[in-house]
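Sample pair:
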Amino acid sequence: MSTIVGNVVLRAQESQPDLVGHVIASALAVICGCIIVAIGLARLGWIVDLISLTAITAFMTVSIVSSVDDFSPPHSSQRFKSAIKLA
């Protein structure tokens, strides 16, 4: 997800260089929140049932690993990244 937001921020700054990155990311978060609220109000939650459990589990696992990697000290992050490359 952060890669997508980063790409959106970079493209938006190319066309509007006076915009600050965190403002663009905040606006994107608000837009996504509005979409989620609209889906909830329209009672379209059944759409989530179309996504396989394997895809949801993989996404959640990668999110957790990415968060742990971001908040860990740099030396352990380097070991983690080198361990992934070895696998």
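The radius of gyration is 17 Å.
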